[in-house]
Amino acid sequence: MTSFTIGEEVLYKGERYAISTQAPLPPYQYRLVSTTPQGAKVVWAQHDELGKMERYTTAQDDTQSIRGTRKGR
Known about the structure:
The protein is mostly beta strands. The protein has a single domain (1-54), classed as Roll (SH3 type barrels). Helices cover 5% and strands 42% of the residues. It contains one helix and five strands. A hairpin with a 6-residue loop joins β2 (15-22) and β3 (29-36).
């Protein structure tokens, strides 16, 4: 089973988040934070909804919402 640590970057529903805290009692959840053009975004997710970032082996284009829709940047 994969484990996650506080501060680790993860993918949740195709978007990049950082884990800010973990609920110590069932249902075990992680509080995730992300930056958006509108400000901070906070969501709760369960372990099986998260994916490890493959930072060094696989390119991820997960910043489209921050960059906007312009191509070539």
